[in-house]
Write the structure tokens for this entry.
Amino acid sequence: MVTVDDFASPVRPTWCTGCGNFAIWNAVKRALAQVGLAPHQVMLVSGIGCGSKLPDYTHANGYMTLHGRTVPVATGVRLANHGLRVICTHGDGDAYAEGLGHMLHAARRNIGLVDIIQDNRIYGLTKGQYSPTSDRGRVSKTSPWGSFELPVNPIALALAAGATFVARSWSGDLNHLTETIVRALGHRGYALIDVFQPCVTFNRQNSYDYYRPRVYNLQDDPTYDVTDKMAAFAKALEWGDRIPIGVFYQVEDRPAYEEQVPALRAGPLAPRPLEKLTPEQVRRLLEEAM
Amino acid sequence: METPEVTIRIGGEAGMGLESSGVGFSQALVRGGLHVFGLPDYHSRIRGGHNFFTVRIARRPLYSHTEPVHLLLALDQETVRRHIGAVVPGGAVVYDEKDGLPDIPRRPDVQYFPIPLSKRAEETGGSAIMRNTLVFAVAAGLIGFDPTYIESVARDNFARKGQAVVDANLRVIEAGVEASRPFQADFPFRMEAVPGAPRRLLLNGNQAFAMGALAGGCRFVAGYPMTPGSPVLEWMAAHAAEYGVVTIQVEDEIAALCMAIGAGYAGVRAMAPTSGGGFSLMVEALGLAGMTEVPVVVYEAQRPGPSTGLATRTEQGDLLFVLHASQGEFPRIVLAPGTVEQAFEAGWRAFNFAERYQTPVIVLSDHYLATSVRDVAPEDLNFDAVVIDRGELLTEAELENLEGEYKRHRFTESGISPRAIPGHPKAVYASSSDEHDEYGHIEENAENRRRMHEKRMRKLEAARAEMRLPTVYGSDDASLTFVGWGSTYGPLREVVDRLNEQGLRARMLHFTDIWPVPEGVERLLTGETVAVEGNYSGQFANLLRMATGHTVSRRILKWDGRPISPEYILRNTEYGIRNA
């Protein structure tokens, strides 16, 4: 049986006390234990940023890559070995600034990744610049007049791009976060989970106290239909005093990208023995060019 | 009169299907036992402009195009205007009777054959568009080449379009040969088929490289369309289902190399084919592969830059760029094949180097090598010599016997750390693009940094010992040495042959293994040395000076986007384009 302790690493997190990343880290480990995925059966892919150090603190296969390039690297891993459950953990700068294009393409590709965005709505590791999810007017060292841009809406973007699983959770509710990740791990295609992750050092506005009275769980309403895309869009636009969390949208009728690739029908690629072409294969190749 | 060689050039607008029919005609010539070198020349546009395809034909193996043209097939008047100067005395121009040649002064030493190309194509094939097929049949008639070989190619190429299309093509071929009859006696250059000659292949560099990569175990290809590198992705996609290869067209070249790195990390031989512009986007990811010691191959088919440059033309301007691309220092290996055979070999060698040294390998090609077609014998693509050497990859049994926590980046004397493919319970690890310790954990300690950086860089020294010295071709006691790399192999070889036939003592040193510069190169750089390169500055000559201290005597350079011909080298051999 897989337990949370199986994922214990000797490396201690360098996150600030109270950082929302601790909850995400714990939720990932709890979710993996709950679904019975052992450390060698998963691959945690991250980019660069405070949250992207998560694989370093977790005993599991992992790869800490480039800022913004988490998703394409993870896609390569998944296509090379879809026997591994590939989970991305990266921040809002990584996912929605440098990596936004990749996110949209991963969504339309429906590649089998669980994409967890540690969305603290600020740049932490570079000490406090405004991020793509910062509210308009955010004053920071690089936006002394308040930022002029609107924040991106990752939920609406993912829906528009054709994502088959779109969810939001937050670091103040470990159980909800764990449940959401568990549910995403059961999804066959691309699963986006945007996680509100309070940054206690550089973002005093979007704190635990800010989110707690505002968030409500979509799944508390038994009439909410997760397969209704228009309803999901409507909820994606809801913002302000009440902010929905939970699964906005989930459909299982679209095959994952890797399910459609002819070369992968025989199973994952990486474990297959690599051998020279047979004389018959060589003959066919030569024949083509004659 | 049987001649040693014949060059036929067809010219017209984009959209007339010159390249595909030119390659088809070349294929027919090869089936007819002849040797060919076919060179497309086209604009970066879908319609209009001026495109041409040149095929050089001989009864001995050819390695290069040359400048003189014996037969010019003009599908428009522009072709005559542009290429009449290349036609040899006694040569001929075939043009469409319908268009005539009203405004073009005629050369008295060249013959002009008016033939109703459009009319006959329409009458026999049902469409004037088929006049490219018709005019090649005219050419076959003029040189005395048996048209049944053209028919056999038409049958194969059009079979999937149905018997009606095949029949139309056969009628057009017959009409073309018929139309050539009144002129056959006047055309002096003959090149008859060699019945019963052993079968040979017709390939361009892209195809040969892709075939070598497949033979070498490449099982993952990610790319974004860009001339002239993306035909490698297309070739692989066409063979993906049959040979178990994952191919994916991605959103940009950043994603292409990142995906290939992800696949390489997961244990699959992976590559990203591209051109210089795409490689520019891959630069940061290249460093990721270097830092995290991931085997990956990049195929970079150069075209003239900077920026968009000349999209459909050739240059060797990216050498020092690929050598230095990405921040910081890390080992990389650069190969630059010069022929179809070498491109095939580079295909599988690249993957062995990538896995043995756990680092990125770049194969530098260019438009000239990538797109020009040449015939080779089946045994010239040496599948038997292909080796799949995965280097220090831990076996299942070795993984089972691992004691303690697995160290992905273990300090070793060679710098190579035994690699585990992720997925085994005894070898769970996470590597990082941050500087890391032996386990892969992020580590800023100075001593660790010093040792880890040295460990990575040491791999380059081991690799250097494996790099091949240049091919030496020509006179044993040469007084003149040409130095080239990559696609200049063919033109250089032709130059050396011609000079030695004239009694001069010339040789060439042709490099395919560029970086790390092979050991012992200095010994070969003797006498008068002339660097020949398709770029402005002589990048390889500069690299050689950096690596060996040798300064070449002269440089023959070219940067107009057109391939270097043997004649260009010969014209400039005495003085060079630039002195070193």
